[in-house]
Every structure is written in C-alpha cells, then in structure tokens.
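Hey, I'm writing a tutorial for new members on how sequence and structure tokens pair up, and I'd like a real worked example in the thread rather than a made-up one. If someone can provide the structure for the chain below, I'll link this post from the tutorial.
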Amino acid sequence: MTEEIADAEPLSAFERWFADAQGVEPDANAMIVATVAGSGFPSARAVLLKGFDARGFVFYTNLESRKSEELAGNPHVALCFLWKALRRQVRIEGRAEPVSAAEADAYFASRARDSRIGAWASDQSRPLAARAVLEQRVEDFSRRFGEGEVPRPAFWSGFRVVPLDPSLGGARTGAKLGFDCTIPFGKADSLEFSVPTPPVAKKGAQHNSVEAALAAGPASFLELMAALGSKDGREIVRALDALYAAKKLGRAEDSRYVLKKS
C-alpha cells in the first residue's frame, strides 16, 4: 500500500483507486456529502461524483436543496467514498465552489431527456404530498417542452469541492502528500485527502493580501493562491471567510470571488 500512494501528485492515487472501484462496484461514483447548517448541526447525503481533476471534485444538484442552502452559508464540506468490495474508503475535506454556468449547461445537456424533465419537476428537499403530485409535474413539464430542447433550470447547477491541500488542488508545492493511509478495520484501507483543522487566526497580512488581490478584479481560489504565491490554502480560506462575515465578498457571473461595492 505504501508504494501505491507514494506519488508526487496525490490525485494519481485517487484515479487508480477509482478505476479499481469501477470494475467491481455498481455505483463507484457514489459519495457522501456532509455539510453544516447555520445551527451547527451537520447533515449528510449520498450524491454522484460527476467529474474530478486537479481543480477538485464535482457534483450537481438543485440549488434550492438543503445541501445547497447549507453550502451557501458555510462552504466547508467533507466527502467520503466507500468501496466495500475493495475494503477501501477515501475522505476529502475542502471548500465548495459553484461551477460555471457553461459547465453546468454542458453537463445538463448530456443527461437523458427524462432526467432533464425530472430536474424541472422535482422540488428537492421539500415535502411531497403524494407521488401523484410529482408524476403530474413530470407530465406538465413534458407537455411544456414537447419535442423541443429542455434547458437547464436556473435553480439547478453544480459544485466543485476544492481540497484544502494545495498539492491536490492543482498548486503543486513539492511538499509531501497531504493525506494519510491507515488500516482502521483490520485489512481495510483508508485514503484521506485532508489537513488538520487550523487555529482561528486574527486578521493579518494574508487577509489584507487577499482583499487587495480581489480589489484588482475577480479571482478563483486557485488564482488567489497563484497570485499570492501561497503554499497553504488554509490561510486564504480564513481570509475569504472573514470577508464573507464582513459581507464584503460576492461572486461574479463566472463564479469567481469578487469584492462587493461599498
């Protein structure tokens, strides 16, 4: 196992494990997404991974769902894959960022027509009086769109989970891997892409640097890391959280961070 994860790029280990899982698991891309409500209580649910690369791990959802609402208030998120046939699991901790409209449109267009109709008909995370209500909504939207194109609803899009470890997020640092491989249940293997919880820091140079960088124009998380020469994404996360708390941070149309006009 040690040789398997001894890569300079930890994503390579995930790619191999994921490929292995696809050969033996019916839903290898199923993962648990854990979010935290404003009350401090966590919630978790299973979703499907729809893409991953050096930028992060992508899933799609109704933006009016509970998980979307919780991510809007607190973008910190944890993912967990469990591949029982291989006795392996992968844990990922990071920050959720909306995918661009272009990405969401491209993926939505690739879905089966029934799935696209279902996205319009489903009030995700909302109580359903009866199954007949959902069936009627499906029928109504099927009639509405007829044989024509089914566009992506404005309330449906995706999130990219950017791991806090910059060596997985695309900003190569040459540092050692940011995850641990353990054997917690006898012969089971566990691959973790995570970092220790950092201490709360007071507003400092990094906070001011992030604000100054955004004053020059919109920027993504990885663009901020590159602009500031940062090797530790946690400092930028704390700076962004402080700007969110001060209601000074917003999103551009392409989902990059932008300072709100005072």
